[in-house]
């Protein structure tokens, strides 16, 4: 359907909804086009005999116009149904990250890593897919025909309790213990809550993945299969632990105050 026909369909629809008391300015406001544009289309519709004027800018549809409107509506409905089918076809294409170089047409296995879908030809899992568009290792690729269940175990949390400023803050932290935890959990998401915890992360040259809405963010990350290491300042730990308990997320709390190691 041509763009002009779509605009005329909209104008006829506005007229049939409000006839005969509808002005060109009302149509212009409803459709988001200029009054001059509406006027041009009105002249064309009058010339075709689709509408007629009752004077003072009042318009009604003719029988011919009503038949044309019904035909256009049917055509437009078919057009929308076609687009809808394409949308659902597109939804069958999913993005994934290439675990190694992957080519178009390859059969791959799917798995979750750090909350993101990965595809591999060598890491075998219970879920498979066909590659629509491949790519190099680490690139986003497109997969379809997903079969099987993508296994995703709930992540676990290590809470590193950072001393508040009144207890020495970042100057009273066992940095070696934090580094050891991070080294043993290299794939974990890192969260930071509180000013002192942020300073500690900066001293460790760490850029936290989660800094805002931290408790909720931790839970969401765990639900996507991610493990989380979180640096939480002082009594804020209690709030985080309660939310973890409420959401049945497994966790371990380590006090990383230097004087208690």
TrEMBL record:
Protein origin, superkingdom: Archaea
InterPro entries reported in the protein's UniProt record: DUF7839, HTH_CRP, UCP_HTH_arc, WH-like_DNA-bd_sf, WH_DNA-bd_sf
Database matches in CDD domains: HTH_CRP
GO biological process, one term: regulation of DNA-templated transcription
Domain HTH crp-type: 14-63
GO molecular function term, any single one: DNA binding
Pfam families: DUF7839, HTH_24
SMART domains from the UniProt entry: HTH_CRP
Protein name according to UniProt: HTH crp-type domain-containing protein
Organism: Methanofervidicoccus abyssi
């Amino acid at each position: 359907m041509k763009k002009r026909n779509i605009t005329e369909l909209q104008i006829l629809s506005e007229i049939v909804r409000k006839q005969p008391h509808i002005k060109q300015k009302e149509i212009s406001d409803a459709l988001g086009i200029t009054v001059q544009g509406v006027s041009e289309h009105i002249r064309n519709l009058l010339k075709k005999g689709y509408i007629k004027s009752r004077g003072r800018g009042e318009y009604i549809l003719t029988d011919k116009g009503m038949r044309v409107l019904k035909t256009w509506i049917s055509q437009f409905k078919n057009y929308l149904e076609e687009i809808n089918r394409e949308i659902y076809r597109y939804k069958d294409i999913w993005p994934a990250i290439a675990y190694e170089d992957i080519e178009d047409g390859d059969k791959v296995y799917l798995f979750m890593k750090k909350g993101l879908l990965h595809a591999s030809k060598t890491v075998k899992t219970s879920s498979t897919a066909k590659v629509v568009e491949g790519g190099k290792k680490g690139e986003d690729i497109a997969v379809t025909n997903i079969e099987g269940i993508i296994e995703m175990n709930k992540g676990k949390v290590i809470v590193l309790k950072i001393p508040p400023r009144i207890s020495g803050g970042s100057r009273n932290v066992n940095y070696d213990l934090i580094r050891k935890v991070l080294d043993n959990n290299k794939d974990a998401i890192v969260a930071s809550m509180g000013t002192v915890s942020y300073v500690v992360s900066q001293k460790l040259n760490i850029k936290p993945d989660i800094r805002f809405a931290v408790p909720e963010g931790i839970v969401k990350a765990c639900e996507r299969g991610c493990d989380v290491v979180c640096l939480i300042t002082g009594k804020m730990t209690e709030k985080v632990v309660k939310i973890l308990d409420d959401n049945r997320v497994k966790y371990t709390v380590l006090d990383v105050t230097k004087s208690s190691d």
